[in-house]
């Protein structure tokens, strides 16, 4: 099979571009009334920018399409930027960055808005949702993606070649943003590591408005920092990374009655310790919505969901899973042989925008005392307001340095610990306080670190962001940030501040 392009973009049409921004129902999360314009009082003059561009790709408060453009999947943070740039190509991004530089404005970037950080008020937001080109390279088992590509469409296309990637838990998560934070796959992670480990090339617009190519041999420091440092070093306009031969998984979830969770969690921990790297797994207390697309016995109930993904023969997967099926009272068993394109069923994440308040830490171990604490605070009878409380096993390839290092911290952690609460505004304080209580309760077994893609809008203080990196990694990131973005233009995020 020859190398080929698989391109699903179309010639620019302003109306189409704005409709594209209704990603994953994002308009449902739009909030706020039209605001006044600060530094941007008119569409920018394009002459002198050194790039092309068209005025109808810039939206200001009050313009048709502005509210849809600023709406993210996670609606806990609302955005009121002075302008939104509907980028279709790299030169649109350059134009926005150069304009912001001339007017001393911060720059934010958003494709899907799954991870909430800080409001982009007073800045320029670059929407990359329409930059959704996919080019598959079958001879090298790799792909080139634009920053608007989501995992679902990419895996649907790559599956035609028998290839899959280290996708996140949801089909609607953006590929590039997820990868810049590491990219922890619930299906293939322990077998292949982080998706950032397999990136071979980036095109990135830095704070000076230049479009740079970063590879292991060119712009090496920028290449290292961007893969793990999120959007702190520029706006990625194109990314190349490797895919893997995978057509089917033996995967799904065992949903156990919360009352039998103490025994089931211990059994899961012991089982996970012994399984091969072909298995990626997590355990989570989940408050299942009454209308969830899951088996009737678990709808509306608190369950312990034991998630499993085995890459390999289904018979071998069934043999591996057999001890876990006896771990507790199983209310629903969705584990089956499935095409890789169904990997999203492992976690069954929400498909519509949500108001999600999250907190996270990393664990070095999960002894009985930690399990008891988790059960007491999140299990049956706990009256926990959290929608999810999860431990996700790491290790395997996730714990090993790749051939080309990336700025991913704490590879020695054993588990992520992650909790999500979804609440209307009047109940937000209860959810936030309980989430903080959970993190504090797990502190005896925490490494003190965090996985940057799981940081929330409540964890944007520099001290919180620093938790995502070991001391040596953070020091190097700070130095590179000072070199490429000394004015901290890219600060509307989980920010790595340049050195004074």
TrEMBL record:
Q: Which residues form the FAD-binding PCMH-type domain?
A: 77-246
* PROSITE patterns according to UniProt: FAD_PCMH (PS51387), OX2_COVAL_FAD (PS00862), TAT (PS51318)
Q: Name one GO molecular function term.
A: oxidoreductase activity
Note the InterPro entries from the entry: BBE, FAD-bd_PCMH, FAD-bd_PCMH-like_sf, FAD-bd_PCMH_sub1, FAD-bd_PCMH_sub2, FAD-linked_Oxidoreductase, Oxid_FAD_bind_N, Oxy_OxRdtase_FAD_BS
Keywords (alphabetical) are: FAD, Flavoprotein, Oxidoreductase
Keyword Ribonucleoprotein found: no
Please give the family membership noted in the entry: Belongs to the oxygen-dependent FAD-linked oxidoreductase family.
Q: What is this protein called?
A: FAD-binding oxidoreductase
- Species for this entry: Candidatus Brachybacterium merdavium
What taxonomic lineage is listed for the species of origin? Bacteria, Bacillati, Actinomycetota, Actinomycetes, Micrococcales
